[in-house]
């Protein structure tokens, strides 16, 4: 029951992340278009802001991009945690089932039986 809820939550988080990514891409495309302000600074070499851009609009877009990046990072971390919990739950359930009344055959399986060792240190194996 918990795994089903966790899986549904993870799928919902993946949908949220997929919804954030196009908005981030649109903002990045607007900022990085030819002649655009870019993602970093919009100051010319003399230290003054560029006259051809709307500074408040650029700051608002960059602020929104920073919010979306933080949300994307948080959602991705939560998805990662949920996936780890889901996989650890599956691993635990399979190891409990496997270790029930069975024993590990690999520890008792003979690899080879030494038949003869001669002077040249060659082993003749019987399988």
Helix and strand arrangement:
Blueprint lengths: L1 H31 L22 H44 L14 E5 L5 E4 L1
Antiparallel strand pairs: 1-2
Helix pairs in contact: 1-2
What are the key terms here?
Nas2 N-terminal domain-containing protein, mainly alpha, elongated, 2 strands, 2 helices, single chain, 127 residues
Structure explained in plain terms:
The protein is mostly helical. The protein has one domain. It is built from two helices and two strands. It has helices at 2-32, 55-98, and strands at 113-117, 123-126. A two-stranded antiparallel sheet has the order 1-2. A hairpin with a 5-residue loop joins strand 1 (113-117) and strand 2.
Number of domain modules: 1
Strand line-up in the sheet with most strands: 1-2
N-to-C SSE string, H for helix and E for strand = HHEE
Give the averaged pLDDT, no decimals: 75
Gap between N and C termini = 48 Å
Structural class: mainly alpha
The fraction of residues in strands falls at: 5-15%
- The counted number of beta strands is 2
């Amino acid at each position: 029951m918990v795994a089903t809820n966790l899986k549904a939550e993870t799928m919902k988080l993946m949908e949220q992340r997929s919804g954030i990514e196009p908005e981030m891409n649109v903002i990045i495309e607007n900022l990085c278009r030819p002649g655009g302000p870019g993602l970093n600074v919009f100051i010319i070499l003399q230290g003054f802001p560029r006259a051809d851009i709307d500074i408040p609009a650029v700051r608002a877009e960059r602020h929104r991009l920073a919010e979306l990046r933080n949300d994307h990072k948080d959602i991705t971390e939560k998805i990662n945690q949920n996936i780890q919990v889901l996989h650890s739950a599956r691993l635990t359930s399979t190891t409990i089932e496997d270790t029930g009344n069975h024993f590990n055959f690999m520890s008792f399986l003979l690899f080879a039986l030494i038949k003869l060792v001669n002077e040249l240190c060659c082993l003749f194996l019987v399988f």
